[in-house]
């Protein structure tokens, strides 16, 4: 492998004005403008070879993450890819444990989101380089990534037996059928009942069988909306509900109990994402109703996930490709989930989250869990048009990506148009505001 | 009370080159440059009336916190002090739950440190205004703050009985004797044995009886240093040890067991600050040795403290004036600690942490815990000269501050000199680097 020295890191603040149409609205994020801190790495080996990475945000605050990426970039620029991947754990620690910067984390919040953006770009770069160097047709890049992850596991002697048996079959199954997905696009909190009915009917026609509804702002509204959706999808399709942290512990139990008649599979983010023991209480109270607790999109690192698993505080692990330290940390979380025999059902949506996380969940199925039982990956149908290799959904399944890399390269035109605050989209909005 | 509209918020990146002499060095922060994001609020009522606040950092990364303060400032400028304090809880939530910015937290890391800097300035402003308006001699500003906090408790009907009985006596006792302190200045990890011996002997001569030693990098070193200090201070003085998160759970238990012969009162930050259940295991294992677990300086919010208390994962609550959401959140933590009957022993040192936290610990004693048993406040003897009303230590006790406000107004000359990267101190260091 060539050394591939990283000679430049650029980061841009890219925002989409999704709040204008209430896409993505929930009980805590009432006006999100889906955004990313978008990182591009350049190397000295080949002008065309770049690594693309991002972290997802929801508008204001993206500039803080951009600032953090810039601060961390001094630890990246000048390193060779070879140095990085030959001690990827050490490199992760370099970013997360800088003797001065770790104070403003450690491994949480802004600095962790920035670490994810950078590491996603490094993984993308590595996947592209590997594909080139190994000089054989890539079946799919996902499996290429999985291959590298498997090597990493071996190298670091993580003592969990990875499911070897049947790996080949599962690989073929995924290429043919894809990984099961559920949709969150039908029932954002800000949508009217009419929108909800129309979107839900369309989704059913397209083959969707699993639906998530946002709840938590008003109980009567929730009852009306859940009742409407359950009627539309029938008793055999799957319904999940998501409160986005709106409640305290007892409120969560009372509220969800009142929605139990609609048979949701899980309640997602019932309370503060830091409250491991609170989630454990909620899990225990809702278990007799057949409702599990799902959380993870704001769970900031592997140590928090470890405790959620130890305390039986969740029944569905929702990994996020940008909240924790990229593939490195998600790998640890996937392995822990397998050890505790808890299904991984990733958080996705936003901008680029579906593109990224499909790699992780395919790896989980093919090489770790070997099961689809109670497993599915979130899908939200917007903003994919801004990516060079957007996710492919067929019959409500993620079809494994075939292009090299980690799938989050954006179209340069989209990036420029949506750069905040100077891109043309935002200049136009500012002009309208002045009129 | 006048409305006192906040018309301007400025924030500056102020760094002290402490790494040059290894002040503040520990097992995880080997080269800290003690720093602050320094906030000044101006009002429309009186040019001389300002609110001063800060959050502590250790060098690189301060610029990220400054960026976050700027992002949050739009939620502060334009508000009147009256609006804020008449619904202080609502104002706290406004800062911590902005529908877009909360994504990059919530309530943790950079955005929480920035929230603390702003709220510290608001509390300072409020204390100054109250002192003026009530137009009577302030005994000490601490008690003025305590008075306001007490009102707040009453308003929000927090159901904990605050110790009324004997309050007057404790107030007088504090004015006379001060609050017991311990010193961390003698035994930073980067100090030589000779430095350590000298500083320890000087501290003993000044009346110090409680000493903290940094450990965790090398066991043989730790044994040598602890043995040396225990010999110097004798069997009856108090020794604490601090690993600054260096170990994993089992390593912590093994390592501390080997230091048990030196009879430390506590082991501080034995492992990852997020690992509530890990700390619970360590607490359980060390209890038979008579060693407690202390943590909190990197515990990012009240929900984490709640779990530490619920899980019996700590025996000493180390509140920090800048890590969580200022007085508002520390109040909740102090009350929870009292409910669980666990002593509060604040983290201090850094820049301005002693100045701030003395108000909180005096409030704890006078109005909540009413006990000094196993209680003491950290003190580090440096950088106080940059403050307008530096802490006063007499016979190893914090003497209650008498100047109005929250005591973290810095000398403007110090701020200008140490502004990063353009202050003269940093320009000189840059010049030396070039030579």
Key traits:
alpha/beta, L-fuconate dehydratase activity (chains A, B), TIM Barrel, 43% helix, 2 domains, 435 residues, Enolase-like, domain 1, magnesium ion binding (chains A, B), homodimer, 14% strand, 15 helices, five-stranded parallel beta sheet, globular, four-stranded mixed beta sheet
Topology:
The structure is a homodimer of 435-residue chains.
Chain A: E1 6-15, E2 35-43, E3 50-57, H1 62-73, H2 81-86, H3 88-96, H4 109-134, H5 141-155, H6 167-177, E4 179-183, H7 193-205, E5 210-214, H8 219-233, E6 238-242, H9 249-258, E7 266-268, H10 276-286, E8 292-295, H11 302-310, E9 316-317, H12 326-339, H13 353-369, E10 377-379, E11 392-394, E12 397-399, H14 412-418, H15 424-434
Parallel strand pairs in A: 4-10, 5-6, 6-7, 7-8, 8-9
Antiparallel strand pairs in A: 1-2, 2-3, 4-12, 11-12
* Percent of residues in beta strands of chain A: 5-15%
**Distance N terminus to C terminus of chain A?**
57 Å
Mean pLDDT of chain A: 90
Query: Radius of gyration of chain A, rounded?
Result: 21 Å
Query: In oligomeric terms, what are we looking at?
Result: homodimer
Helix content of chain A: 40-55%
CATH class bucket of the largest domain in chain A: Alpha Beta
The DSSP helix count of chain A reads 15
Strand/helix succession of chain A: EEEHHHHHHEHEHEHEHEHEHHEEEHH
Judged by helices, strands and strand pairing, the structural class of chain A is alpha/beta
- Uncertain segments of chain A are 134-141, 150-160
CATH architecture classification of the largest domain in chain A: Alpha-Beta Barrel
The main sheet of chain A orders its strands as: 5-6-7-8-9
What is the makeup of the main sheet of chain A? 5 strands, parallel
Keywords (chains A, B): Lyase, Magnesium, Metal-binding
Protein name (chains A, B): Mitochondrial enolase superfamily member 1
InterPro entries (chains A, B): Enolase-like_C_sf, Enolase-like_N, Enolase_C-like, L-fuconate_dehydratase, Mandel_Rmase/mucon_lact_enz_CS, Mandelate_racemase_C, Mandelate_racemase_N_dom, RHMD-like
Catalytic activity (chains A, B): L-fuconate = 2-dehydro-3-deoxy-L-fuconate + H2O
């Amino acid at each position: 492998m060539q050394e591939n020295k990283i000679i430049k890191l650029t980061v841009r603040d890219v925002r989409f004005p999704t709040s204008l149409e209430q896409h993505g609205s929930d009980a805590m994020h009432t006006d999100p403008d889906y955004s990313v801190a978008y990182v591009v790495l350049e190397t000295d080996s080949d002008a065309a070879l770049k690594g693309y990475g991002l972290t997802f945000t929801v508008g204001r605050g993206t500039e803080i993450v951009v600032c953090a990426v810039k601060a961390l970039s001094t630890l990246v620029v000048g390193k060779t890819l070879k140095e990085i991947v030959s001690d990827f754990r050490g490199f992760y620690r370099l970013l997360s444990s800088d003797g001065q910067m770790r104070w403003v984390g450690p491994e949480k919040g802004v600095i962790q989101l920035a670490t994810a953006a950078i590491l996603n770009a490094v993984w993308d770069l590595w996947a592209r380089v590997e594909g080139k160097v190994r000089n054989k047709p890539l079946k799919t890049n996902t499996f290429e990534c999985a291959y590298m992850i498997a090597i990493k596991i071996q190298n670091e002697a993580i003592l969990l037996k990875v499911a070897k048996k049947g790996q080949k079959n599962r690989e073929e199954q995924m290429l043919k059928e894809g990984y099961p997905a559920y949709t969150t696009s039908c029932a954002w909190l800000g949508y009217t009942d009419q929108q909800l009915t129309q979107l839900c009917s369309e989704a059913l026609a397209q083959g969707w069988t699993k639906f998530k509804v946002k709840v938590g702002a008003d109980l009567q509204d929730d009852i009306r909306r859940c009742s409407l959706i359950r009627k539309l999808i029938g008793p055999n399709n799957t319904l999940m509900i998501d409160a986005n942290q709106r409640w305290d512990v007892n409120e969560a139990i009372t509220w969800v109990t009142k929605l139990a008649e609609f048979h949701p599979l899980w309640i997602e983010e019932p309370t503060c994402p830091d409250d491991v023991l609170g989630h454990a209480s909620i899990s225990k109270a809702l278990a007799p109703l057949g409702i599990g607790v799902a959380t993870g999109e704001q769970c900031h690192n592997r140590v928090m996930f470890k405790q959620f698993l130890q305390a039986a505080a969740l029944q569905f692990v929702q990994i996020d490709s940008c909240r924790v330290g990229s593939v490195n940390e998600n790998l640890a979380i996937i392995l822990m989930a397998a050890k505790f025999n808890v299904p991984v059902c990733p958080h996705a949506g936003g901008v680029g989250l579906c593109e990224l996380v499909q790699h992780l969940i395919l790896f989980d199925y093919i090489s770790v869990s070997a099961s689809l039982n109670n497993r599915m990956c979130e899908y939200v149908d917007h903003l994919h048009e801004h990516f060079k290799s957007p996710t492919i959904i067929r019959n409500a399944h993620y079809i494994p990506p075939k292009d090299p890399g980690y799938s989050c390269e954006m179209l340069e035109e989209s990036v420029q148009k949506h750069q905040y605050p100077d891109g043309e989209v935002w200049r136009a909005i500012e002009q309208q505001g002045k009129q």
